[in-house]
């Protein structure tokens, strides 16, 4: 039972990430700092 809870918790946390490189939020016309955010 503990293993099932552990696996479900890990699966839920792993699904929180967003695919792709980080990018600034908002429309392109409203971005004041157009450079990519650092990935680290």
UniProtKB/TrEMBL annotation:
Q: Which UniProt keywords are present, listed alphabetically?
A: Signal
- Region described as Disordered: 19-40
Q: Which residues form the signal peptide?
A: 1-21
Q: What domain of life does the UniProt record list for this protein's source? A: Bacteria
Protein name as catalogued: Lipoprotein
């Amino acid at each position: 039972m503990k293993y099932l809870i552990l696996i479900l918790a890990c699966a839920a946390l792993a699904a929180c990430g967003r695919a792709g490189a980080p990018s600034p939020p908002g429309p392109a016309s409203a971005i004041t700092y157009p450079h990519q955010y650092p990935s680290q």
